[in-house]
Amino acid sequence: MHSDRRPAAKHHLFRQFQYPTVPLAIYPEDVISHHRAFIARRRSLRPSEEYRDLTPEEWQEFLGHFELRKVALGVCTRDYGTPCQHEHACVRCPQLRPDPAQMPRLQEIHANLLDRLSEAQEQGWLGEVAAIEASIAAAGQKLTAMRQLAAKHAAVHLGMPDFRPSAGRSSPDS
């Protein structure tokens, strides 16, 4: 199943970490076969109707689930068939995967929350102050996440390569 050849030069690295031999990245056949047997036993205990083909209506319902997860600030990542426990307060929900393209919208929401906080403090609405402060903190976290995502996925334009010098020609007519 695998070769027992190990790189000799790296043996000293593994010995210093208490490894008796160099670890292999191959699972032994008995581990794989035991796992497959476990899965087969588990399936035999479950009702067979759970393993039937989906009807077209069930498939459409499943696909529709993902369409309903698209929200103004990104995508809700809660599991299939689960209700929204935050009553669609997406800014405060940890299940929201923010879309960096929606950063201006979230910045507007954040500014609005700051205005509402000032009003709540002026009016003495302490319960509202606490709720708005929680929303402001969550909006700040989402903005940070959006900035990190935008920076991580920023495109780097390298331009068109020029092969003429390496090909030994200086013009297409040469």
The percentage helix is 40-55%
User: What is the alpha-carbon Rg in Å?
Assistant: 28 Å
Mean pLDDT: 80
* Tally of individual helices: 6
Sheet with the most strands, sense and barrel status: 3 strands, antiparallel
Proportion of residues in β-strands: under 5%
Order of helices and strands: HHHEEEHHH
Shape: flat
List the uncertain runs. none
Number of beta-strand segments:
3
The side-by-side strand order for the widest beta sheet comes to 1-2-3
Going by helix content, strand content and strand pairing, the class is mainly alpha
The CA-CA distance between the termini, in Å, is 56 Å
Overview of this protein structure:
It is a single chain. This protein is mainly alpha-helical. Among the domains are: 10-43, no CATH class; 85-152. It is 49% helix and 5% strand. It has six helices and three strands; from the N terminus they run H-H-H-E-E-E-H-H-H. The chain has helices at residues 11-15, 29-45, 56-67, 103-123, 126-152, 164-167; strands at 70-71, 74-76, 96-98. The chain has a three-stranded antiparallel beta sheet with strand order 1-2-3. Helix 4 (103-123) runs antiparallel to helix 5.
